[in-house]
Amino acid sequence: MALAGAFKATLKNGKTYYRSSVTYRNKHISLGSYDTEEKAHAAYKVAKDIIANNAITIDAYRMDTPLDFDKFVTVINFRDNNVYIKNPIYLEKTYFSYYLTPSVIFKFDIDDLFYFASHKISRRNGHLWVADYGMQVNLYSRYGIKPHAVLNRDYRFINGDRYDFRYDNIEIINRYTGVYAVKRSVYTKYSARILVNGLYTIGTYDTETEAAIAYNKAADIIKKARPNKNFRQNYIESLSAKEYALMYIKVPISDRIFADFT
């Protein structure tokens, strides 16, 4: 007699494996594939226990739990919130948690639920990314954090939790490439710098917009002398093309840039 929740299947090469699934609230939930009937049945039993016992929480998961962790979270969320989400998401009252692992738990605003319900977060060599239309999209870029930005220099998490991506918890300190805030006792200036076989200081400016445009201007000059160099240009959304052009002409940059690259 076949064990409950385990269903025999065959690969194209003829090898046998077992799928596991459970039906709850008229929803057929796949629990994964296993190499033995016993393992598939064990996963099914865990899912049934979760459904029957509200006291089982995500914290109850152990490394030897027969059910895959992502499915463990999915079943608990469905039981508690009556919403089936295939990714390891648990809905809270005002936000949701995304469980990358039992110990790495992201927090996101509810506004992001539709996106992360259908886009899986992955981690490789310390980098966090999401597969989107066949491309690997850096998770941080979704929140305005530049590639190679440095935590607590270019951005910070206000409550100190680097996995809390709720919008109110993210402060972008330096929004533009090559621009760094220089805080004084009563004011803030913005320094523009560019790396070309050493760090060049382009200038210090009253606004980050001026500093960002100064960086672009320096990059354009250097690019003419060094065509093989690639610089990420700053895009200033708040300026029209005409406003940008006028500021580009007027903004001063270091004489050293002209001396070394023209």
Summarize the model shown.
By secondary structure, this protein is α+β, with helices and mostly antiparallel strands. Helix content is 27%, strand content 29%. It is built from 6 helices and 14 strands.
What do you see in this structure?
With 262 residues, the chain is α+β, with helices and mostly antiparallel strands. It folds into three domains: 1-84, no CATH class; 91-173, no CATH class; 179-261, no CATH class. The protein is 27% helix and 29% strand. It contains six helices and 14 strands. The protein has helices spanning 37-52, 69-81, 113-118, 208-225, 241-250, 255-261; strands at 6-10, 16-24, 27-34, 89-91, 95-99, 105-109, 121-124, 127-132, 135-138, 155-157, 170-172, 179-183, 188-195, 199-205. Strand 4 (89-91) and strand 5 form a beta hairpin. Helix 1 packs parallel to helix 2. It is elongated, with a radius of gyration of 26 Å. The termini are far apart. The model has no long low-confidence stretch (mean pLDDT 94).
Report the uncertain regions: none
Strand content: 25-35%
CA-based shape = elongated
Mean pLDDT over all positions: 94
**What structural category characterises the helix and strand content?**
alpha+beta
Terminal Cα separation, in Å?
83 Å
Rg over CA atoms = 26 Å
The helix/strand order is EEEHHEEEHEEEEEEEEHHH
Describe the largest sheet. 3 strands, antiparallel
Query: Percent range for helical residues?
Result: 25-40%
How many strands appear in the DSSP assignment? Answer: 14
User: How are the strands of the biggest sheet laid out side by side?
Assistant: 1-2-3
Number of helices: 6
Please indicate the count of domains: 3
